[in-house]
Design goal:
By secondary structure, this protein is an alpha/beta fold. It has 8 helices and 10 strands. The chain is globular and about 55 Å long. Bound molecules: 2-phosphoglycolic acid.
């Protein structure tokens, strides 16, 4: 695991956007796994800027979002489809037919979750997964006790997640309790995983993911099984890590040996 601590979320977002844009230059039909929430917005705004100012094309990019609330209307402003439209899709030249979300409406949901997995495979798998982490350690909506081998399916949200997200709902407005989400096994299938976490409220989840034992109680810890995962942190989210000096030396040596690796 790479652990990178930046002075600010903006610096971390800049680095991630550059990695995605480099990959896109090499592979115009890049397959991106995308996350919602406040954390990835800085990356998306930089991708939009690259499209608008440098003419970077997203015409052939394929996207698979991590999750979506069950039964929320697609146009509801809290739906993750609407979030992605607002923060990325409407401002770049991505083709609507290349955008995918796990099934969140209608019936035969589990069969369609399997079809979502099949679609990811048919696209050749996810090249880069953009990821956040919940303060309870969830990745996607894989809540604590999720199987580490899970695939796309329907999950009930924990009280903690509902509380964390309640700020997005007005008084009296019904908050979805259930979501469709890629599984932990699905996420681990991505070739490269770029996780961002900012602020002290994420410090315990980051500590458990990076330095804790692998446990379904902290779903982020499953990322220890992945050969190419990087944590992009700020001083707040890194505050409880005990091996920061070592992570820094790893970075220095990777940079020094870059030409020879
Ligand atoms: P946030 O959510 O980016 O809004 O903090 C992250 C998550 O719950 O995965």
């Amino acid at each position: 695991m790479r652990v990178l601590v930046f002075k600010s979320p903006e610096e971390a977002a800049e680095r991630i956007a550059q990695i995605i844009l480099d990959a896109l230059r090499r592979k115009p039909d890049l397959v991106l796994g995308l996350a919602t929430g406040s954390t990835p917005i800085g990356v998306y705004s930089r991708l939009i800027r690259a499209h608008q100012e440098q003419g970077v094309s997203f015409a052939r990019v394929r996207t698979f979002n991590l999750d979506e609330y069950l039964d929320i209307p697609a146009q509801h402003e809290q739906s993750y489809a609407a979030f992605m439209e607002r923060h990325l899709f409407s401002a770049v030249n991505i083709s609507p037919s290349n955008i995918h979300f796990p099934p969140a409406r209608g019936s035969h949901l589990l069969r369609r979750c399997q079809e979502y997995e099949d679609m990811i495979q048919a696209c050749g798998g996810i090249d880069i997964q953009v990821l956040g982490i919940g303060s309870n350690g969830h990745i996607g909506f894989n809540e604590p006790t999720s199987s580490l081998a899970s695939r796309t399916r329907i999950k009930t949200l924990t009280e903690k997640t509902l509380r964390d997200n309640s700020r997005f709902y007005g008084p009296g407005e019904e908050q979805p309790q259930v979501a469709a989400t890629m599984g932990i096994g699905t996420i681990l299938g991505a070739r490269k995983i770029l996780l961002q976490a900012f602020g002290e409220k994420k410090a315990e989840a980051v500590r458990a993911a990076v330095e804790g034992p692998i446990s379904s109680f902290w779903p982020g810890s499953a990322l220890q099984l992945h050969p190419d995962v990087s944590f992009y942190l700020d001083p707040g989210s890194a505050a409880r890590l005990t091996q920061l000096d070592y992570y820094q030396r790893v970075q220095e040596n990777e940079a020094r040996l870059a030409d020879r690796l």
